[in-house]
Amino acid sequence: FPTKAVGVCGCCGALRPRYKRLVDNIFPEDPEDGLVKANMEKLTFYALSAPEKLDRIGAYLSERLSRDVARHRYGYVCIAMEALDQLLMACHCQSINLFVESFLTMVRKLLEADKPNLQILGTNSFVKFANIEEDTPSYHRSYDFFVSRFSEMCHSSYEDPDIRTKIRMAGIRGLQGVVRKTVNDELQANIWDPQHMDKIVPSLLFNLQQEEITERSPSPETEKEKESPIELTERCFRELLGRAAYGNIKNAVKPVLMHLDNHSLWEGKTFAVRCFKIIMYSIQSQHSHLVIQQLLGHLDANSKNSATVRAGIVEVISEAAVIEASGSIGPTVLEVFNTLLKQLRLSVDYELTGCYESCTSAGSKVIKVHEERQLQEAVIKTIGSFASTLPTYQRSEVMLFIMGKIPVPGMYPALGSANTGFEGSRMIQIMLLKSLLQVTAGFQTTNMLTALPSSFLDPLLSFTLMEDAEIRLLVLDILISLIDRHDNQLKVLTDISVLKLKMDKCSRQDNLFMKKHSQRLYRHVFLASKEENSSQGHFQSLYALLGLICVELANEEVVVDLIRLALALQDLALTEESLPVYNRCAIHALSAAYLNLISQLTTVPTFCQHVHEVIEARQKELPFLLPEDVFVETPKIPEKLEKVEGEVLFSQAKIAETLGGSGYNSERLATPYIPQLTGVSLFPVACDSDEDRLSKRKSIGDTISLQLEVESRLSPEKEQVRESLSDDVSLEEQERERRRQVVERFQTAPFEEIAAHCGARVSAHAKLIYIYVPPPSPSGSVGNGHGQSRSVPVYEMKFPDLCVY
Predict the structure, then answer these.
(1) Residue 624 has what DSSP assignment?
(2) What's the whole-model pTM score?
(3) Rounded CA separation 499/543 (Å)
(4) Are 123 and 173 in contact (CB under 8 A)?
(5) Portion of the chain with pLDDT greater than 70, in percent
(6) CB 536: neighbour CB atoms within 10 A?
(7) Transmembrane region positions (predicted)?
(8) What would you report as the CA-atom Rg of the chain, rounded to the nearest whole angstrom?
């Protein structure tokens, strides 16, 4: 009987299981009629009523679909997938997992088919499934096949362009579905693993890239679609990045870097910048610095790659850093600048040596100088764009950081490599100063004393006395940028009488800043005017600097000192006959322009009248002593400057008299300005020459020789001190020869000999104490009945060298 019963069940449809009959009834005789909706409702009701049968329904549908695919009955295949989709949407019971396995098996079979329509059909079903939130967890489901297959579809090379686009879009939607289904499910395989990200991310980037490369005319069908492939790809990419947690950022960004490397996309810059803009705007803002860190590391890894590749990475960092700075700064501020400055140094080395590796090696690459120059400009631009987004306190730290990287003559050793030498150090100085200029652009602070400490200003000002004209001009521009807090530079350089500038009351912080640093500023302005290789730009920058000091930082005492400085510049142009004619005329013009500015700002009638009379006299007799004839592209100056005297000169006595009646310190105005190293200087003349030479040293040995020279001048007798401080021209050659010998000794002598020699020297401070401190009074001690005990004056105390400034 059992055998007979089985035969009867196989032959008679009425005896088949009910779920099979219900499944068979949803298929019409003609597949073009579509799914039988009434029977589909019965099947859905049955599945909801008997959820334990759901897995069997799925298995039977899968069996029918496999048979229909094999027989190329694609109409019934579509009907089966539609039925599966409706069952998935309706059923959320505990038995759904077994049904899902049957569903995924059918989707896998469709994706493996050769027909594009079947692949697209399977993808659409999978996307619908991905949007369903399951009530029960799954412990054994795997999506590895779908990641691989959808990624392959994203790279489809089907002959028909329309079908190829549809396949690629289906692949993108499939990857989007996989991400949605797995990214928040801890029980699923980690979609952020490199094995998955290395397939998903390049597939998306490939489609973004293809849309830029291939411009084909849109078909009527694609025009009706809601979004283009590029829009779909970008949306999917943004969704992927938006779901990335802190620990997944690296795995998501690394494939982007590798894709740009493998396809040489850094050189074009446009696509790389676009990719990272998408990344920076899509990820959570508190994770932005992780992307910057990866870019910096990638830049370091490509240090020996071509300049165009490095320039592309730098451009991307520039765009990404600005976006990151507007959100979460993170710990990467100094790291960004450190890496960029390192790339500047390497680029300078490459430019000077002509190769990336040792030029003696057989496989060394020859570089192109113009590409390295473009890279250097890109790095400097990036430094400026990133610094512009930083708050004031962080920008001050960056300025100090960059200043610490600049090789200062006589203070820090050269940064150039052994192959580049002095020229390498010079180029690094220029590049770093240009970077510093970018950082200071738009710098505004209410407290300049803390924003610009001595550790920053002292080395910066030392560059104003460098022999290199380009370096001096950069330093002047930096000082102008730091002092100009209200965008007054262009106003100062135009007609003051038209603009009617007014000096605001100087704040307490500004007063403290000028009290501490004003004499150094005046001194370096005065000494910078004496440089023979100064050009029109230098003198215009000096005028702008003095004008901004007057407008931004001036109080009554500062105005007096600035007038004295302007008159001292006039005397300098009269006495320094060794200077070129243009320089002397430019100094006269600088002094005239500046006194005219101060007279307009102080609004003292008698002072303004005197300045106006001198300017009118020069216009009639010596127009080449005014800015209009000097600060132009083709200056109108004589071949030789005759003796200048009379009404064309500003009178210090008249100025002191006119301003003294308005409350200014006439006694100080009548005192000629003498450059000083600090506010109070014992030997201003000697300090001028000594610091001038110290600022122009090119080696540590030269600096030591100058220190020895100063010490040798400070003998115990006052007469010898005064004699050593006088500028005796007859002894100049002997001093030069002695310095050369000292330098040679420090360069060639053994270390032990140098150490013994330096240890035996007596400090200059001790000698000055011996000379100028009066001996104890004859009465001896000052006591309260304690015999010989007495307090030691501060100037006699011995402090450690590190504590003495």
Answers:
(1) G
(2) 0.74
(3) 17
(4) yes
(5) 74
(6) 14
(7) none
(8) 41
